[in-house]
Design brief:
Blueprint: E1 19-24, H1 30-42, E2 47-52, H2 58-63, E3 73-78, E4 82-88, H3 91-103, H4 106-115, H5 117-124, H6 126-142, E5 144-145, E6 148-149, E7 153-157, H7 161-177, H8 182-194, E8 199-205, H9 209-225, E9 229-237, H10 249-258, H11 265-293, E10 299-303, H12 311-322
Parallel strand pairs: 1-7, 1-8, 2-4, 2-7, 8-9, 9-10
Antiparallel strand pairs: 3-4, 5-6
Pfam family, one: ArsA_ATPase
GO molecular function, one term: ATP binding
Keywords: ATP-binding, Nucleotide-binding
Length: 325
């Protein structure tokens, strides 16, 4: 398939791209969302690859497994006979693989690692690290066996919004600086994929002022750089306010009495204060929803899970994401 073609939607969902890049401000739950999306896209007998590139082993912690190796392995089953595989991309291992693939330096590359040359190379050229990471993701996304893609979809748990533009754009910068050779060819291929309809960059946020502002800024940056923006995913969302007015103290007192609870003035005043604070907070959340809607991107909300995200929560999230319009 040429990079400019619109990929099929084998899972029958509203997520037609083949490579899904998931970013978001730190603390918004982007790893959980990426994992849930991988499960959603694997549902119905499909195979997806869930990739992390930051070395945090967040996927392993989320699924309660051993730290991910630099190898694709079975992570979880999805409903309908699907499979999610996982991969933690390591820059050093990716460089060794690159040296072996393009320069046939398998044994020599391993010797370089013993000498510390690989660490030195990725330290003095920080952009090289991101080139290697995105190159591995591109290889997995486009890999085929016969006439069939190995993965129906690849989901990348990407760096946070503050770094996502630089992370994705480094291959274009490398392709511009490199004159000839495998590095230029590889960088151009990765850059073309990341800007093609095969890719969608999804931004995870909370209904809080700083994450929403970072979402707005990230989408503006990604759009300016030419990357295809997908969905805005609101994590830990509570339903919008439905009542048109605040509850009065008299109503609170009657409710406490009906429940057999104390109705003294201090209790009623304390509860009224909490109710007022909650209302102010919910009104802010509704205002932030409006800000996100004005971005002109599809918005999907995932509910707040009071006990945190476990495997059951991931499955519930996957169902919501799969049904997203």
């Amino acid at each position: 398939m040429r990079a400019a073609e619109r990929p099929p939607d084998p899972a029958g969902t509203g997520w037609p791209s083949r490579l899904h890049v998931v970013t978001g401000k730190g603390g918004t739950g982007k790893t959980s969302v990426a994992a849930a999306l991988a499960l959603a896209l694997a549902t119905g007998g499909h195979r997806t690859l869930l990739v992390e590139v930051e070395g945090r082993q967040g996927i392993a912690q989320l699924f309660g497994v051993e730290p991910l190796p630099y190898a694709e392995f079975h992570l979880a089953d999805a409903p309908g006979g699907g499979e999610v595989r996982a991969l933690a991309v390591d820059a050093e291992e990716a460089l060794l693989e690159y040296l072996d693939m393009f320069y046939k330096l398998g044994a020599a590359g391993r010797a370089l690692r013993k000498l510390g040359a690989i660490d030195f190379a990725t330290t003095i050229a920080p952009g090289l690290r991101d080139v290697l990471l995105t190159g591995k993701v591109k290889e997995a996304t486009t890999r085929s066996t016969g006439q069939r893609r190995v993965y129906d979809a690849v989901v990348l748990d990407a760096p946070p919004t503050g770094r996502i533009g630089r992370f994705l754009n480094v291959t274009a910068e490398t392709a511009r600086l490199a004159k000839v050779g495998p590095i230029k060819t590889q960088s151009e291929g990765v850059s073309a994929l990341l800007r093609s309809p095969m890719t969608a960059v999804h931004v995870v946020t909370l209904l809080e002022e700083m994450p929403v502002q970072e979402t707005v800024d990230a989408i503006a940056e990604l759009t300016q750089l030419g990357f295809p923006v997908g969905r805005v995913i609101v994590n830990a969302a509570r339903p919008p306010l439905t009542t048109g007015r605040a509850v009065t103290r008299a109503e609170l007192k009657r409710g406490l009495a009906a429940a057999g609870l104390p109705t003294d003035p201090a209790t009623v005043a304390g509860l009224a204060g909490e109710a007022r604070d909650q209302r102010v907070r919910r009104e802010l959340e509704d205002s932030l929803r409006t800000d996100l809607a004005e971005l002109g991107r599809p918005v999907t909300e995932l509910p707040l899970l009071p006990d945190g995200v476990d495997r059951a929560g991931l499955t519930a999230f996957a169902g919501i994401l799969r049904r997203a319009d």
